[in-house]
């Protein structure tokens, strides 16, 4: 999955949660779920791992899925978030951790146990075959329904919420508060 699949599907999962489970309000004007953090958290593993593994330390890791694609990363954010939430009632780190976990599910990381369960299988990350991963991702996006369908669904979801924000003149409010 590339961008819209992660952002759109994760946003939909949080909206579904918000509609099923009564969401506690921090106060009358502020939503408990900050969808700016949902958007960032849904792609956070790629924001961290792609530059490190594919560019800066390519000769070391030979993989663009490393630390932030492991359960250790998501669990660390969730545990840190739980502690921080108890102290300040701010759920930002929990949101980032859950979104990173959803990212790992959408990336089918269970197929790569050496990364998902790192460091349980050793400190070294498995290497992926060298090649042009960008061209490979574009080719998959054009030919593989398992890649392009989540992207289309995610783009529709992101587009829907964007149109609703524009239509209701709430873009500035979203940028300030993260409310959808």
Automatic annotation (TrEMBL):
Pfam families: YdjM. GO terms for molecular function: hydrolase activity. Coiled coil: none annotated. The chain crosses the membrane at residues 66-85, 92-112, 146-166. It comes from the Bacteria. InterPro entries: YdjM-like. This is Membrane-bound metal-dependent hydrolase. It comes from Clostridium carboxidivorans P7.
């Amino acid at each position: 999955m590339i961008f819209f699949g992660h952002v759109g599907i994760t946003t939909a999962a949080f909206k579904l949660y918000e509609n099923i489970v009564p969401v506690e309000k921090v106060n009358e004007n502020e939503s408990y779920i900050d969808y700016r953090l949902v958007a960032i958290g849904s792609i956070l593993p790629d924001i961290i791992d792609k530059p490190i593994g594919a560019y800066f330390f390519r000769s070391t890791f030979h993989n663009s899925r490393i630390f932030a694609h492991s359960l250790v990363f998501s669990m660390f954010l969730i545990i840190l978030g739980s502690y921080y939430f108890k102290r300040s009632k701010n759920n930002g780190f929990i949101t980032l951790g859950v979104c990173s976990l959803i990212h790992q599910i959408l990336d089918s990381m269970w197929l790569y146990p050496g990364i998902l369960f790192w460091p349980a299988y050793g400190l070294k990350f498995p290497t992926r075959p060298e090649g042009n991963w960008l061209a490979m991702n574009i080719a998959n996006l054009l030919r593989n329904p398992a890649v392009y369908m989540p992207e289309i669904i995610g783009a529709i979801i992101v587009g829907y919420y964007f149109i609703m924000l524009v239509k209701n003149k709430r873009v500035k409010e979203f940028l300030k508060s993260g409310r959808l």
